[in-house]
Amino acid sequence: MPRPAARSPGLERFQGEPFIATLRNHCTVQSLDEPIGAITAEGNHHLLVKPRRSLTVDDCDVQMISPRTKVRAQRFPDTHVFQGTTAADLTRQVGNAVPVNAASWLAERLQPSLN
Description:
- The chain is of the alpha+beta class.
- The protein has one domain.
- It is about 35% helix and about 15% strand.
- Helix 2 packs parallel to helix 3.
- The model has no long low-confidence stretch (mean pLDDT about 85).
């Protein structure tokens, strides 16, 4: 007897549109238009899920988010130079960083008290 096709809340919610699955704390899903969940210094927790024909898990293309995509999610410009040579070096630095837009917002509010 064939096994039933696996289904997913993300596949049902986004009806065939690509989405992000975060593989920690009960596996959350979110639209590509939403801000990405926390990028951590250790591990790779974010998957890009691209459904193909049917709304089943077995019929999806899935890929881990690349270190370069994590850099962009943290709002670093493409020209920013990081130290180290491996993907693990880059992942650790990006995961330990404060998103650029959040750091800018905070700095703008602190500046008046420093003058």
